[in-house]
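hey so i finaly got around to running the thing on Peptide/nickel transport system substrate-binding protein from Luteimicrobium subarcticum. pasting the sequence first so u can double check i didnt mess up the copy paste, my clipboard has been acting weird all day
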Amino acid sequence: MRITRKAAAAAAVVAAGALALSACSSSSGDNKSDDSDNAGINTNASVNIAWNQPFYSYNGNSITGNATANNVVLYLTDSSFYYYDKDLKIVHDTSFGSYEKVSDDPLKVKYTFADDNQWSDGVKASPADLLLEWAAQSGKYNTVEKKTDEEGNTTNQGALNKGVYFDGADPGKALIKDVPEIDGNSITFTYSKPFADWEVNFSTFLPAHVVAERALGVTDPQQATDQLVKAVQDDDKDALSKIAKSWSDDFNYTSLPSDDNLYVANGAYKISKFVKDQYVTLVANDKYTGDRKATIPTVTIRWNGDPMGQVQALQNGEVDVINPQSTADVLEALKKTSNLTTETGDEATYEHVDLQQGNGGPFDPKSYGGDADKALKVRQAFLKSIPREQIVDQLIKPLNPQAAVRNSYTVTPGSPSYDQVSGGNGMADQQALDIDGAKSLLKDAGVTKAVKVRLLFDPENTRRVNEYQLIAASAKKAGFDVEPYKVQTDWGTDLSNATTYYDAALFGWQSQSTAVTESDANYRTGGANNYYGYSNKQVDTLFDQLQVATDPAKQADILAQVEKLLVDDAFGTTIFQFPGVFSWNPEKISNVQHLTIAPTVFYDFWEWKGGTAPAAS
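ok and heres what it spat out for the 3d tokens, dont ask me to read them lol
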């Protein structure tokens, strides 16, 4: 699951089972288009797509980079052993490689790269790439954790330099305890126990040879790769410390790096231009040999966090495709524009509020002398003050008259198990708007003064601002002063790095796979998406059981138990399922489709057809 950092309105893939943040926010010289104006617009055959949050990391599998804003770009530049079709069925991409389960007891899965599979710099993609991804996300080699200050700056860099710290965590990969076996063009992973989502456990990855070259100071790609493999196999802490630092840090950037090795690609496109906070331009990758080839030579993604601004840009011909956060004004404006194709539908993103339980703030037992019961009552009181029905009625029903409050952390409304899970978790009752009940809980907790709550959300997102205003007004009646957290870097980065300085977070999680264990990383102790200090051993044990459960009825029963614990612990609350709107200019691009999971409107790019449209250069 990725932050719809669209997230976090944040999902391609951080971990096979991880939700993504949804913000629902040296040049290769391949693009020779004409810079005919200050905006860098030209008239080459191309397509412009608007998105709501800027790209900031080429490593979408890291904790920092796990965001839809990154992965919609990486969907075009990365390839994989599989992808989802329109019906969310897994399709094996044999032009990239193959994979198969070779044993059930123990579970063994073998991946084999296609002979002509290569990166855009001409270096062959190889098992070393997957080996690095496993090492980075399994947690096997980490010896230290990163600590940050209010601005997200690392405060224990000395310890990180001496130890091994990969900024990644994936429960599925952590089930692989033994070092994978490499045999020629293949790599085999042996799991320590059965895993229900083994088929989607490995997807995208970074180029091992680039990481090794930068980390180990070796210029020859093959020699660098060999040294990386040896370091992993030998558990060489000195080499792994350098490798981990490169994997975690080097691929995070907000403009085009001077080192073009930092954006080599193995997919249909590669980055050509990247101007901070404005746009990224992708061009067809001439080294790509797979089946899903680029049909439009140049794709530019332009950032605009204002939904109506995206509509106006589409109407003015500045962009050709938009997937803005939907509002009644957005939908009305699009329907009134006759030359556009506009479609609506639910997205696999849901809005929610999570509470910090380990930052010394109002929801942390430390603020009450270690009294966990008092902190729990304050959390419960705050959740009872959030006007979920009002938010849905005023902001969502104008777009979807059938919209309803979502009452599940893990299951999408309309799914076969939704009624079972939501009906038994207690959320509808315990988190219904109840100002008097909230006041009573605060009184029981001995709270006599207004409780200050710093709420993190995207200040550029109109709907989030409206939600904040409704929450703040309602919570004030119960005894809470809710104020916006002042974003230090960008709100998505602050979500994971500035955890001491906000008390609650309002954002969306977007599904990027159909994995039943997708929510594991959100709620497990130390999970990649658990930014809040939440820990419950029963929840951890239930997710252990879920990993090996293959019966859908058993899976639903486990998730129902997990959610009951989350509600009882007042982890946070869910609000609504995102109403989606997609619009494009059919004279500029056709064959546009969209998935309910990430990458939404970027899906099926290999079937796009386009004409001459403006493009950044």
